[in-house]
Amino acid sequence: MKKKITIEGITSSYCITHITDILKDICGVINVWINLDEKNAIIKLDFNIDDNKLSTAINNAGYKTIIVKSI
Question: Which among 5, 2, 1 has a CA at the least distance from the CA of 39?
Fold first, then answer.
């Protein structure tokens, strides 16, 4: 299962590392790929994780989740 999250506020490689680390700390997240140009993250999941849980983790880190969708 994969989800795509559009995130506002990604501006550098630091942001990519920060968001990746935050998402990988969530149980069930297998891998994270972030595209700086497109301002989104693709997340590979072991099982379905509630969109709000992913959004909350990102928002609490100082970024803004725009949309989460399954792909």
Answer: 5
Model pLDDT for residues 13-67, shown as the tens digit of each residue = 999 999 999 999 999 999 999 999 999 999 999 999 999 999 999 999 999 999 9
Residue 32 pairs in a beta bridge with: 43
Instruction: Read off the pTM.
Output: 0.93
> Which secondary-structure segment (H or E) carries 24?
helix 13-24
**Which has the closest alpha carbon to 28: 58, 65, 54, 63?**
54
- Residues 65, 55: Cα–Cα separation, whole Å: 6
